[in-house]
TrEMBL record:
An example Gene Ontology biological process: pyrimidine nucleobase biosynthetic process
Keyword Ligase: yes
Domain Glutamine amidotransferase: 191-394
Lineage of origin: Bacteria, Pseudomonadati, Pseudomonadota, Alphaproteobacteria, Rhodobacterales
A Pfam family per the record: GATase
InterPro entries linked to this entry: Class_I_gatase-like, CTP_synthase, GATASE
First-level EC class: ligase
Record organism: Pseudooceanicola nitratireducens
Name of the protein: CTP synthase (glutamine hydrolyzing)
Its EC number(s): 6.3.4.2
UniProt-recorded Gene Ontology molecular function terms: ATP binding; CTP synthase activity; identical protein binding
Pathway: Pyrimidine metabolism; CTP biosynthesis via de novo pathway; CTP from UDP: step 2/2
Family recorded in the similarity comment: Belongs to the CTP synthase family.
Length: 398
């Protein structure tokens, strides 16, 4: 067995573990992650990657993106004595003191057992990263991130067919903290032979009641998830404009909530409609807190199960069988409003497992307008994009 310690000193959760995962893929090795000791990387949303059992570091996305397998949880140093034969890669972030200490202990233990230890260093450069130390001869020495934030060693491929996509949220968050949405768009674009021009509009930084410029020049809009309630009002305004102009629209978790709220305001007659989390005093709360009787702890977290409704567009994309979706939310579309929203043209296109609670919605009269109460972006994989993102890009008028 060979222990590969991959040291990458970065404060950006979207980069953490990235090249360690690339090396593990090249070696055909497993990956074992280290605990942070509660230190984290300092970003509020550094632990937003949904695992089978809860939330983990965002860098776990890259391990799953490369391997198509669930990332293993942090392990104590003594486990090295019982590891099976083969190579193991351990990402180490010196910015997290607990990981640096654990790596030293792992190396000492491996040497006591006469097991080889290789030290790989990821160094930041002006145009990407340089790989130094005990790097395998055939592993690329220079890496950068492409337009979708994914690691590449070769120049990115540009396709002739192009599309303009607006992401209604913080560019810094999508690029430096939570990498999955951009990667999912890139994976789908590659599969379809598209090059996407990504625009960002952050409602938290915009003027009150404003909209992005040149909405008519857009081919599609994504409303991403997140916990920043400063995004809500702007996402609702953009969703209303997109629906009015029939611009393809994809809502993810928080984005599903803002999309649905826009429909409630525009078509169901609830001019005062809002989300309880963002506007506790709103008379019509389109999304309200999950009750203890609905979900244990009132918090839905982990790999949730959704049941697409036969005959809906979502079922045509994902199939009618039960599907798994990473979920992380405490709020749900209030069932009291289901009938009113149906009469307004909104279709509930998936239900939560074992409950009459909406997991997805869509507007059939639009070219593409789907919101999913979850994070399908976390299920995209290298060379195998999530079908919801592929369907979204296929709906663009190119």
């Amino acid at each position: 067995m060979t222990l590969w310690l991959v040291e990458h000193d970065t404060v950006h959760p979207a980069e953490d573990m990235m090249l360690a995962a690339a090396l593990a893929d090249a070696l055909g090795a497993g990956v074992v992650t280290l605990d942070t000791g509660g230190g984290g990387l300092g970003a509020y949303e550094a632990r937003q990657h949904v695992t089978d059992v809860g939330l983990g570091l965002n860098g776990l996305f890259w391990i799953e993106w490369y391997s198509n397998a669930s990332a293993k949880g942090p392990l104590p140093p003594g486990v090295i004595a019982t590891w099976a034969q083969g190579d193991w890669v351990v990402p180490v972030n010196p910015a997290v003191s607990a990981q640096a200490d654990m790596a030293r202990r792992l190396a000492d233990r491996a040497e006591q057992l006469d097991q080889p230890v290789q030290h790989v260093i990821i160094e930041q450069g002006q145009d990407g990263w340089h790989v130094a130390g005990d790097c395998p001869a055939d592993f690329p020495k220079h890496w950068q991130r492409d337009a979708y934030g994914r690691p590449v060693a070769d120049p990115p491929v540009h396709h002739a067919t192009q599309a303009n996509i607006l992401i209604v949220g913080s560019e810094h968050r999508q690029r430096q903290t939570y990498p999955a949405v951009l990667a999912a768009l890139g994976d789908a674009a590659d599969a379809l032979g598209l090059t996407l021009t990504l625009r960002f509009w952050d409602p938290a930084e915009a003027s009150p009641n404003s909209l992005p410029d040149d909405l008519r020049d857009l081919d599609g809009i994504v409303l991403p998830g997140g916990a920043d309630m400063d995004q809500v009002a702007g996402q609702i305004r953009v969703a209303r404009a997109a629906i009015a102009a029939d611009i393809p629209l994809l809502g993810l978790c928080l984005g599903m909530q803002t999309l649905t709220t826009a429909v409630a305001q525009m078509r169901a007659g609830f001019n005062d409609a809002n989300m309880e989390e963002a506007a506790p005093d709103a008379e019509t709360k389109v999304f309200r807190r999950l009750a203890q009787s609905e979900v244990t702890g009132g918090f839905r977290i982990g790999r949730g199960r959704a049941h697409p409704v036969a005959g809906t567009r979502l079922a045509a994309i994902l199939g009618e069988a039960e599907v798994q979706v990473p979920v992380n939310h405490r709020y749900v579309l209030d069932p009291v409003l289901h009938d009113s929203l149906r009469r307004a043209g909104l279709v509930i296109s998936a239900w939560q497992e074992g409950a009459t609670l909406a997991d997805a919605v869509e507007l059939p009269d639009q070219r593409f307008c789907i919101g999913l109460q979850g994070h399908p972006e976390l299920l995209t994989r290298r060379h195998r994009p999530h079908p919801l993102f592929t369907a979204f890009l296929k709906a663009l008028d190119l």
